[in-house]
Amino acid sequence: MTISDRVRIKDVRVLSDNWTPLKNTTFEYRRANGEWQTQHRETYERDNAAAVLPYNRARRTVILVRQFRLPAYIRGYDDLLIEAAAGVLDDAAPEVRIRAEAEEETGYRLHDVHKVFEAFMSPGAITEKLHFFVAEYEPEMRVSDGGGLEHEGEDIEVLELSIDEALAMIADGRIIDAKAIMLLQYVALQVFR
Fold it and tell me: What per-residue string of b and e applies to 63-99 under the rule 16 or more CB within 10 Å gives b?
């Protein structure tokens, strides 16, 4: 039996479609004991995205970005969020989109990006699947100041940190972005060990 054999969609209503659709879905789900149960869930229909952590092996540094995030602020985080550079795929291949996003946000033109894993970040409510990448960078790969696209409301600061400082920032709560935490732990274990 597949999951498709256990789910029957009964109704889907669009609650909002300002930036990306918010939907309310009524469905029946066959529980492990064989009984059908009617459930209702709201889903935020986000497109898939990609994130990247540039690193310099010789200097033991990484590139992160810092920017304002309204949801974090609403939840009580009164600071700019330190994150891995990331963006929505917009129908492009993940490898293509993350190179463009890295250049827009960080100013670095990355050559070889390596996909390390995929993850659903909040599968209980958001449809987005994230493709995670790492890429080695050199100082001469910086082609601009970065900062993001002003017309998209981006006002991004680029940070170059030692891997040790970045890991300490996770431990003391200065880095709380899941993308950054996952990628920093990956490079700490796989690159800088």
Answer: bbbbbeeeebeeeeeeebbbbbbbbebeeeebeebbb
